[in-house]
Amino acid sequence: MTREEIENNGEDMMIDDPKPKIENDFNVHYLRIYYGNLFPYTDIHKWLSYGHDGKHPGCDEYYFGRREFSFTLENDVYLRYKSFKNASVMEDAIKSNFPYKIDIGAVYSVDPDKRHAYAHSGTNLFTPVERELVFDIDITDYDDVRYCCSGADVCSKCWPLMTVAIKVIDTSLREDFGFKHILWVFSGRRGVHCWVCDAKARRLTNEQRSAVAEYFRVYKGNENNAKKVDLMGHSLHPFLARSYVDFLKNFFEGELQATQSIFSSKEKYEKILGMITDEDIQSDLRGKWENSARSSLSEEATSRLRWEQLKKTLQSKKNKALSLRTCVEEIVFTFTYPRIDLEVSKQMNHLLKAPFCVHPKTGRVCVPIDPNNCDEFDPLAVPTLSQLIEEINSGGLRMDVDDDDSDRSLLGKSIKFFRSSFLEPLLKSCKEEIESSYKTKIAKTKDSFSW
Amino acid sequence: MEVIRSQKRTVSNDVVSTPTLPLYLTAPPMEVRLEEFELFAIDRLRVLKGVSDGLARGRNPNEMDDLVETLWKEHMRLSDVSEMINKDIISHFVLRLVYCRSDELKKWFLSMETALFRHRFRLKKIEEQRAIVGEFGLPYKAVIGAELESLKERLGLVARSLGQISSDVENIYYKVPFEEVPDLVAGRRVLLQKGYAFVAGSQLVSLVVTQFRSHLSKALILTNRKWTTTIREREKDRLTPIVEALSTSYLGPDYSQSSEYADISLKDIDQVSKSSFPLCMRHLFEKLREDHHLKHGGRMQLGLFLKGVGLKLDDALAFWREEFTKKVGSERFDKEYAYAIRHNYGKEGKRTDYTPYACSKIITSAPGAGDHHGCPYRHFSEDNLKAALGRMGLSSRGMEDVMDKVRNKHYQLACTLTFEAVYGTSCDTGINHPNQYFEESQKILKSKTPTAPV
Question: Which stretches make up the DNA primase large subunit C-terminal domain (chain B) (predicted)?
Fold first, then answer.
């Protein structure tokens, strides 16, 4: 909102009924207050130290300092290769810059600040050493299958696509890959980020990250092809089968049909007919639907009816061609299966926005999402900068989240969740790992001294 | 390995007992004759370049298997099996020295050796493959009993998802951390559970290749270190010059002697430039006619090419004189340029008869402002290249194919496609040398109109 609009609103407030307070306001003043009082510096530092900020002799006190951060300041000024020795240095840097965006990069072999000292030798000594396995899912990648919004908008009708994506990916990360320490974060406007923080995940090479990303990849669409999901073979891979049975099928036939009515207009159903490789079946269905165009059923009911007709037709003709057997699944996958941004996941040096940042366009905080309760998450109810500032101003609430009032403060709930569900189990496992690898190291050196 | 000059070689007994596909984990103790050092490496390099060519042409895995078998027989076979294994090992380690010296060289060598290994492995019988897996000392256990039973149904689904019709599963599966088989994971070709992949016996190749590549990658870094710290200096009069020459070596005919297809005279040269010159030379030629001048790089590239094409020294002098005097005058030509032309023909100085540049040399050259040499497929902007290809008569469809190769940095394949489009035939050997392009072109044109000059 511009200054003008804010002032006009103010005038309106005197004449009309009091309007709700200005939402989604984002400016540097509010940002200062946020970073001055609310941003959880200690928690972020604890997380990214992975136990190395402890006193155990196996701890690497320089570990945190080798992590790259980047700041995006006002006016799109971009500062890369920032690094901080410890939490208070990080806090000072953020409080003196008030970045619009903070990104987290990889842990490098040497302090990013000192990388130029190592640039002279033939082989590159400044390389990423550890980095979380990350995923970025953005709802704009689904624009071809959501009819309620497009572009930067998101609403309660299409957000469930993100919910189902979280469920599919989270389940696979745990069941198939065996990962345990997974953090899902709202990106602030229209998507979600996933941070896989197990030690094994942090040490994956680019090739291995690429393999995981490709394992998740199903959708291969662009403007040039009508059929964007091609499930070949005589059956689905168990991962896809499980995703279909546990999540996608019910979502498609339930919520999606209710909110998107994907068969209700000619333009919409032509898109789906284009995914059926048999021309005869296409015309058969097209004929049926053109004739029933003026029926008295609601959009949703029409859609559901046509879906049943399509399934029935394909079932009866399934022996005509192998490709028809997976057609129903392909359509469901096209509309519901997660579409991740492969490039974000493939490279260790890719930077990703830090949790608890504030999105400049919406003013919303990038809060964690509980994958076990993601159906309850509402992107439009996430605390905004203005709401948080309002909360501070009105109640004079102490922002100390350790007391029992934490559930009452807007941000307290999120921070509490971050700590109890993610940080604590993670740090416990990190501690164990540092201790055990130290023991192994000591045992090895002892051996080398033995006769 | 020890490189010696003696006639006899003492072979260590270890070598004979190893299987026929060495893993190159360590350099075995053996003595190598100096001549073999270079020759073995050159033969292996021919194999690797053949592999590179096959991959760039998009050959499928089965075609690559056949190609590798053919290449290996052609270049690496010896009558004595143990001699053959020695050659295999020696050539690999020599090329490690050659290709460890920069990131670009390392990347190429790693890719080609891995591909070579992959296809040689695929050609082995399953028992031999298992033995090789054992060689690597990989700690993977076969999945048996109750665990296998519990997985059978899903393993069947995986097999069917890959096109198998029945849901029968193979006899042996290995339980492997998923990190070790990234390509199988990426293709959803394996069942995953709690971080482990269940790899079928028939998929062993993926496992082994990952190990091979990882090991070689680390070894190359160590080799590079040794090379730069000790070997290069110590061997500067013996092995170093050989090593440095090997990475840029062109392995075909050198066109220093003109053949029956290369014998042009001055009066034909304009016509021939339009009909038979590859794009790089055509461009230089046109610029020379236009500007009446070429800078040094251009003079060398075009001048030596013309020599290979059969232009005699006197004709060459007349040709360059005709153009240059339009700009710099006769006296300056004699003073500054004639000597260099005679030098190229081996008539001055140390009388080396310089050979025309091969594509590899032209592609790696670095034309600057005012230069017109180099490889247009590499050095031209996309627009300029398209315009030039248009002038050669390519259709827009043909041009797209060529541009596709260019974008993937396959400059010689782009030139080959141009050749094929212009003359309407296929060129299976690929273009490696501008004079080869010329000769092949002349062959085709002469076979169409035997008597008239083309």
Answer: 270-438
Instruction: Please judge whether A208 and B179 are an interchain contact, meaning their C-beta atoms are less than 8 angstroms apart.
Output: yes
Clarify whether A136 is annotated catalytic: yes
In angstroms, how far is CA B285 from the centroid of its own chain? 28
Return the higher-pLDDT residue of A382 and B366.
Answer: A382
Whether residue B195 and residue A175 make contact (CB cut-off 8 A), yes or no, is no
A272-277 long-range CB contacts below 8 Å, 24 or more apart? A272/A310, A272/A331, A274/A226, A274/A227, A275/A226, A275/A227, A275/A228, A275/A229, A275/A327, A275/A330, A275/A331, A275/A334, A276/A314, A276/A324, A276/A327, A277/A227, A277/A321, A277/A323, A277/A324, A277/A327
Is residue B297 within a helix (H) or strand (E), and if so which, with residue range?
Answer: helix B296-309
**In which region does residue B424 sit, left (phi positive, over 0), alpha (psi from -120 to 50) or beta (all else)?**
left
- Using an 8 Å CB-CB cutoff, list residues of chain B that contact chain A: 102-103, 154, 157-158, 160-165, 167, 178-179, 182-183, 185-188, 191-196, 221, 224, 228
| Confidence band for B255, pLDDT divided at 50, 70 and 90 | low
Q: What is the pLDDT of residues B189-211, one digit of tens each?
A: 999 999 999 998 878 888 888 88
Report yes or no: B69 and B123 within 8 Å, Cβ to Cβ: yes
Per residue in A86-124, pLDDT (tens digit) is: 999 999 999 999 999 999 999 999 999 888 877 665 556
Task: Please report, for residues A142, B98, B244, the alpha-carbon distance to residue A153 in angstroms, rounded to integers and kept in the order given.
Answer: 12, 56, 60
Q: CA dist B195 to A37, A198, B12, B177, Å? A: 41, 12, 43, 6
Mutate to test the interface with A, among B155, B175, B176, B188 (most CBs of A within 10 A): B188
Q: Is the pLDDT of residue A400 over 80?
A: no
Residue to mutate among A133, A175, A176, with most B CBs inside 10 A, is: A176
Long-range pairs, B253-257, Cβ under 8 A, ≥24: B253/B433, B253/B436, B254/B355, B254/B356, B255/B308, B255/B355, B255/B356, B255/B433, B255/B435, B255/B436, B255/B439, B256/B307, B256/B308, B256/B353, B256/B354, B256/B355, B256/B356
| A138, A170, A329, A330: the active-site residue | A138
Residues 6+ apart with CB under 8 A from B290: none
Q: What is the ipTM of this complex?
A: 0.88
CB A36 within 8 A of CB A418: no
- Report helix, strand or coil for A183: strand
B116, B133 in Cβ contact below 8 A?
no
The Cα–Cα gap between B316 and B305 comes to: 11
- Non-local CB neighbours of A116 within 8 Å, separated by 6+ positions: none
Closest-CA residue of chain B to A123: B103
SS3 for B220?
helix
Q: What is the sign, positive or negative, of the torsion defined by CA atoms of B101, B50, B251, B375?
A: negative
Tens digit of pLDDT for each residue in A122-148? 556 788 999 999 999 999 989 888 888
- Contacting residues of A for B167, CB less than 8 Å apart: 235
| Contact pairs from chain A to chain B, CB under 8 Å | 72
Residues in chain B within 8 Å Cβ distance of A233: 160-163
A68 catalytic residue (yes or no): yes
Residues with Cβ < 8 Å from A18, sequence gap 6 or more? Answer: none
A285-324 tens-digit pLDDT: 888 888 776 677 788 888 888 899 899 988 888 777 777 8
The count of other CB atoms within 10 Å of the CB of residue B161 is: 22
- Chain A residue with Cα closest to B222: A123
